[in-house]
Amino acid sequence: MIEIKNLTKDYQSGATVVKALRGITVDIDSGEFTAIAGPSGSGKTTMLNIIGCIDSLDSGTVKIGDQEVSTMAKVEKSYFRRENLGFIFQSYNLIPVLTAYENVAFPLNLLGLSEKEIKPRVMQILKEVGLEGMENRIPSKLSGGQQQRVSIARALVKNPKLVLADEPTANLDSNTGREILDLMLKMNEKHNTTFIFSTHDQMVMECAKRLLYLHDGAIIRDERRE
Q: Exposure check for the chain: N or C terminus, fewer CB within 10 A?
């Protein structure tokens, strides 16, 4: 599903050039549950942002499905993200004045769907993530774990090819984090959605079916689990 070849990315920090990614080459298959792990500064978030069409690369190629996303213009990347990708963030990134229902419906509104099309999809995904009956609560009336469930529902409601999760358990206690991981694994298996995480959380690494370990911008370990 994802083909990355010779991916490089440098950042300028004053007079210093920071080599964030150094020639990454890796394929990720459809339906994988993969964690990109490594210490702070290893390049994992940069790699996730480039796959997610948020950041640009310096050289190499990134292909998602049959789309060469690395050569797209900004507006093309924006449309591609909106139609094909789902995002889960450690800070949830929910719109505080909108209800759980409205937050989940938001990406479908952007796609131009009617309320008749939106309502059954939103209610079904809220049920699947364990939030049935909480659709009218605003984020401040939900726990951290419940807010992350809304974030997961929002990411999945448009049936994306790929969900990218940046440190999704970082703001949760260990028990809630485990529940969120189990939920994402369930969604992965039920919908065959590809999940890619950036993380330094050992629990996420152990839960992943594949671990790509980065150090100084290079993959030093590629471990698959049954």
A: C
